[in-house]
């Protein structure tokens, strides 16, 4: 590393807030007061965070764009570019739009807090701050950000992280449960024929159907998640799984024709070129559901449950139309 790059040197030396071994969360501290910056650095590192320091707004933007921290702890009053402007620019940049921001200020006036929140801050702390409160705010903001990342941006349903946590919790508790793994048949061809915008509309509609059916048939305790693409997961009681599957297929098959233009719907298929350039016919979208249940076997790990459910889902795809199948093996 060259000594003529002060920014890189600042990150890598022990006194400059370099990333250290610890949790995934990283914090960029932005304050022109070196004493406050150093204090924040020490407290955050002690709490297990990776920390980097910046003393100006310009430096903060450059470091945030390059290193993508999870959280920016941002002083309001700085020479040149103030914290409000930094926050607005972070929110306007696609590279940093999702970063969490906590503003640090010497004034607790409501107008100042409102300006910080309007600029895109997630939280606001007044100096002099109480260290335990500061760490609690940091932890809370990062937790909320993680929960948002665990959510599908397309359907609003819990994403892969939450799905894994839900299934692991059932295993840990020794609960009886069934995992329904559903995906759409011929969705890739639909996307190629109608375009990704129409495809996203189908996924949102599918999420709504699954949510309606899941809560209606599985009750308030049912869990519904969106793995990604056209893959969805439901977790419910083993005895409720057949009714959920039957009703889900009924609802999806009733609505699927509406995803098509009238001439394609009346024809019953769309034609898409395969890799050889030949036209291939694909029927109206259908849904396949594989079920893994503790009614027949016990599971010890999330991956084992998902593997069984996915295997059953692939088995159903061998049959045309919407189909569901449950694993009946005992080992």
Question: How would you explain this protein's 3D organization?
Answer:
With 331 residues, this protein is α/β, with parallel strands linked by helices. The chain folds into 2 domains: 6-149, 3-Layer(aba) Sandwich (Rossmann fold); 160-326, Alpha-Beta Plaits (2-Layer Sandwich), CATH 3.30.70.270. The protein is built from 12 helices and 12 strands. The chain has helices at residues 6-12, 34-46, 57-67, 83-92, 110-118, 131-149, 160-173, 187-194, 196-218, 241-255, 262-267, 302-316, and strands at residues 26-30, 50-54, 71-75, 100-105, 123-126, 178-185, 223-228, 231-236, 269-273, 279-283, 286-293, 323-326. The strands form 3 sheets. Strands 2-1-3-4-5 form a 5-stranded parallel sheet, with helices on both faces. Strands 7-8-6-11-12 form a 5-stranded mixed sheet, sandwiched between helices. The longest helix has 23 residues, at 196-218. The chain is elongated and about 70 Å long.
